[in-house]
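TICKET: design request
STATUS: open
ATTACHED STRUCTURE:
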């Protein structure tokens, strides 16, 4: 199914059929994703995670088309009709404004991580302060951080907007859904725009909380190792990336009985398991039924266009 979408889009592209992209860009399903991007942008701006025209958001559509924010726009003012559509080669396909100058960073992540359906780059002050200081926050201190993000990577500095900058995340991005960007900010990927925005909140709150806690007690006590193993077992069950899991791919025991809070998190995040566990089993198992329905509809539309 996915291959069909990609083949048909490629055929439309090769035949110079912009109407195919236009149809995708204006589809009702895409409109819903545009609204999700706009909502996330407003939250980033309201939480002061972006300043000026800073920050950018993207989401992967069927056929590896990428919906993204335009350049030179405040994320607090963004409207759904101002978003852009690009392909993985950064060719602007639709939109009334040029794409974000940081789109290369997003595209490298989409190419490297098939599970990544959405990417957000922003500059939240506490996490960015760690990136400026070259300090990776210590781990094993806060359960929310360990569950949703885990160990954080720090990518080296390169000039923003360049291919070299985009490539700085490649050594880390498969095993880290959140990366500090030296002298710059952060980038997060997830299965939805909303969840990528949640990760920006989780890492920012974590960096802030650890800084405050260290003022109260410089030597913070870690969550016991056995309890961290329980969290890792849950993450493995849900398919959440964690560098500690990839370092010990076959050492994880069967998941123990999860605490009540984790059960609640599991209920909230069952989609993560479907989205990411499925990656190991194959492309088709990655998506929720509603996503499959969306892909089916797009496929039908694109096949119709290809026949015209
Ligand atoms: Zn930036």
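STATUS: resolved
RESOLUTION: sequence designed for all positions
ATTACHED SEQUENCE:
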């Amino acid at each position: 199914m996915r291959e069909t979408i990609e083949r048909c889009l490629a055929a439309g592209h090769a035949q110079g059929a912009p109407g195919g992209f236009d149809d995708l860009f204006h589809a009702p399903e895409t409109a819903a994703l545009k609204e999700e991007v706009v909502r996330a942008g407003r939250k980033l701006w309201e939480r002061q995670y972006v300043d000026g025209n800073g920050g950018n958001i993207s989401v992967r559509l069927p056929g590896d088309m990428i919906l993204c924010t335009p350049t030179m726009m405040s994320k607090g003012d963004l409207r759904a009709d101002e978003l852009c559509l690009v392909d993985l080669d950064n060719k602007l396909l639709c939109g009334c404004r040029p794409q974000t100058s940081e789109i290369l960073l997003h595209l490298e992540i989409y190419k490297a991580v098939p599970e990544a359906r959405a990417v957000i780059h922003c500059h939240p002050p506490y996490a960015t302060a760690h990136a400026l200081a070259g300090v990776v926050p210590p781990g094993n201190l806060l359960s929310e951080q360990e569950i949703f993000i885990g160990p954080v990577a720090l990518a080296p500095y390169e000039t923003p907007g360049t291919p070299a900058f985009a490539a700085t995340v490649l050594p880390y991005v498969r095993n880290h859904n959140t990366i500090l960007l030296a002298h710059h900010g952060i980038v997060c990927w997830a299965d939805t725009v909303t969840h990528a925005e949640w990760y920006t909140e989780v890492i920012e709150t974590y960096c802030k909380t650890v800084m405050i806690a260290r003022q109260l007690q410089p030597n913070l006590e870690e969550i016991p190792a056995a309890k961290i193993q329980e969290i890792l077992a849950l993450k493995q069950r849900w398919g959440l990336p964690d560098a500690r899991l990839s370092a010990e791919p076959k050492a994880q025991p069967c998941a123990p009985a999860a605490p009540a809070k984790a059960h609640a998190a599991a209920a909230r995040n069952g989609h993560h398991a479907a989205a990411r566990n499925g990656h190991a089993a194959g492309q088709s198992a990655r998506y929720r039924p509603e996503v499959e329905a969306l892909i089916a509809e797009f496929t039908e539309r694109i096949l119709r266009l290809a026949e015209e």
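CLOSING REMARK: The first strand starts at residue 56 and ends at 61. Residues 3-18, 248-308 have pLDDT under 50 and may be disordered.
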